[in-house]
Specification:
Helices cover 36% and strands 24% of the residues. It is of the alpha+beta class. Strands 1, 2, 3, 4, 5, 7, 10 and 12 form an 8-stranded antiparallel sheet that branches. A hairpin with an 8-residue loop joins strand 8 (165-167) and strand 9. This is hypoxia-inducible factor-proline dioxygenase.
Length: 241
């Protein structure tokens, strides 16, 4: 049987038997050993090279402080990539697999209809005790419905290194602690159902995040943004008097 066919069947089974039920039941699901050692190492080495070459910039805050870097609130360094850049073949392969997984979830994601996603955000916490305070990825309906994070940290010991992603599922009496271990792929709802934080990291911590968009909410968000931009342009001459 061709490898591509086996992969398709495996991804479809994983999507329908693991990802979809867990998203609906508890709002999150992670998969370990997703790529395997060899391909996972290729992704890790490319991310490390970006870091070494100084390609990562301080992460910015959204919301009222949009575009502002405040290291005590958010301490990661990031780079946005499409996956088709030179040397990013392994990252592109990873993105293709994640895309297929989400595609196989299809109409089983409730009200959501996913047609597109963001670019990939490569993130590094440099190990100086910084993290990311509790926040919601999509608190105001910007279209993001699924957050997907791939972790790249070998020999990670959370007792020593920290860096746990702690999720506070809405209306639940428990928290979900996710260790950022190598070759782990995590899915969770992006909206107010899943406030989360990255606890302080005391070793270099790498991850790659993509967000999948609900088509209707994304279109509405773009429309609101265009209307707001047009309104500001119309008001601009008045403010110059």
């Amino acid at each position: 049987m061709p490898l591509g066919h086996i992969m398709r069947l495996d991804l479809e089974r994983i999507a329908l038997e693991y990802v979809v039920p867990c998203l609906h039941d508890i709002g999150l699901r992670y998969l370990d050993n997703f790529l395997g050692e060899v391909v996972g190492d290729c992704v890790l080495e490319r991310v490390k090279r970006m870091h070494r070459d100084g390609e990562l910039a301080d992460g910015q805050l959204a919301g009222p402080s949009r575009g502002v870097a405040k290291r005590h609130l958010r301490g990661d360094q990031i780079k946005w990539i499409g996956g088709t850049e030179e040397g990013c073949e392994a990252i592109n392969f990873l993105l293709t697999l994640i895309d297929r997984l989400v595609m196989y979830c299809g109409s089983r994601l409730g009200k959501y209809y996913v047609k597109e996603r963001s670019k990939a955000m490569i993130a590094c916490y440099p190990g100086n005790g910084t993290g990311y305070v509790r926040h919601v990825d999509n608190p105001n309906g910007d279209g993001r419905c699924i957050t997907c994070i791939y972790y790249l940290n070998k020999n990670w010991d959370s007792k020593l290194h920290g860096g746990i992603l702690r999720i506070f599922p809405e209306g639940k009496s428990y928290v979900a602690d996710v260790e950022p271990i190598f070759d782990r792929l995590l899915f969770f709802w992006s909206d107010r159902r899943n406030p989360h934080e990255v606890q302080p990291s005391y070793a270099t911590r790498y991850a790659m995040t993509v967000w999948y968009f609900d088509a209707e909410e994304r279109a509405e968000a773009k429309k609101k943004f265009r209307n707001l931009t047009d309104a500001r342009k119309r008001e601009a001459p008045l403010n110059e008097d």
